[in-house]
Amino acid sequence: MRRMLAIGRKEMSLYFYTPTSYIAFAFFFLLFGFFFSNQFLYDQIVDVRPIFDNIVFLFVFAVPLLTMRLVSDELRQGTDELLFTSPASITEIVLGKYLAALGALLLLVFGSFLYPLILSRFGDLDQPVLWMSYLGMFLMGAAMMAVGLFASTLSSHQMVTGIAAFAMLIVLWVIDWLFYSKFPDAREWIEPFSIVGRMKDLNKGIFDLADVLFYVTFSAVFIVLSIQILERKRWR
């Protein structure tokens, strides 16, 4: 546990020295602000739900930028051998790096509170909708961070891992949209396995433990896959 937290702290500090992190943060907040102002000025309604409709689009681009160096940078610099021979287990290494990714995600989540705060000056916000939407935003972001972490274990080239993460995330998004638009009859079969569909109830202010468990399980699957990939590299 102590080693995992130490790795997490080290990785979190690296976010503040990496240009791609600032690009990801700038991209996220600029577009989040654009969607917010566009929606609010257009509808003149104090409602946070339209803001969160675009959150998956923002994560598809921001998450690869925030995760692509997590493991690939160790592989590129050759420091992976030092890491693999350290007393820390592969599980502790992966979880430490994932904790750092969640730390970056929390910065995005907390930073975006600015927009509901502005909205609250013009009327009362629906509190269950607000907090459940933020819970959904964090859970979906955590699931996508796990996908990005997994992609970063695949190659020593950050660009390759970034593209791989982007491709996997956009497939998850497009498959969801494709089935909804082309195969509406299959919607009830696909929605329970959709990272986008699972957010719909949360965005309405409805808490369902099954939605939370889905995102936790989804993240755990990609964390386990990341551990398996690194275990293979360790003994190669």
Structure commentary:
With 236 residues, the chain is an all-alpha fold. It is built from 13 helices and no strands. Helix 1 crosses helix 7, helix 7 crosses helix 13 and helix 9 runs parallel beside helix 13. Keywords: Cell membrane, Membrane, Transmembrane, Transmembrane helix.
What are the defining features of this structure?
ABC transporter permease, cell membrane, mainly alpha, ABC-2_transporter_component, transmembrane, 13 helices
What's a quick, concise take on this entry?
Helix content is 77%, strand content 0%. It is an all-alpha fold and 236 residues long.
Low-confidence stretches: none
The helix-and-strand class reads mainly alpha
Rounded Rg: 19 Å
Mean pLDDT: 84
Distance between the termini: 26 Å
Strand content: under 5%
Classify the helix fraction into a percent range.
Answer: over 70%
Largest sheet: none
- Annotation field: number of helices: 13
Bulk shape: globular
User: Could you tell me the number of beta strands?
Assistant: 0
Q: Which H/E pattern describes the elements? A: HHHHHHHHHHHHH
Subcellular location: Cell membrane
Protein name: ABC transporter permease
Membrane topology: Multi-pass membrane protein
Transmembrane segments: 12-35, 55-72, 93-118, 130-151, 163-180, 212-230
Chart the SSEs and their pairings.
Elements: H1 2-15, H2 19-43, H3 49-52, H4 55-67, H5 72-77, H6 80-84, H7 90-111, H8 114-120, H9 127-152, H10 158-182, H11 187-190, H12 200-203, H13 209-234
